[in-house]
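As a warm-up, study this chain.
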Amino acid sequence: MYFSTDHDAIRLVDFLKGRFPVQLTKSSKLISHNVRDNTSNIKITYCCTIPKICKDDLIRIPRKLSKELGSCCEVLLCIKVSASLHFLDVATFKKIQISSMQYFLYES
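Now compare it with the structure written out below.
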């Protein structure tokens, strides 16, 4: 999507962050620069990566993340996707919440 102002793009990014676990990457590129007026034209790009997990998906997490979450089972059932991911341990029926930072750190 293209926006005329940076503020409009930031509003969309904030909306996505509130609804989904999002990994955000921001980059900017100098398009043109006028030395006489001391003005420049900059293109700013936001890249939002959303996880590939939906509600009711059965997933397998790495052992390292499993131990970090309190030695839960490696097979989890996704029960809710919001600003963080909510899972149900299929062995103990314990609810587990994973932040977007943890998810993207261990995602392969």
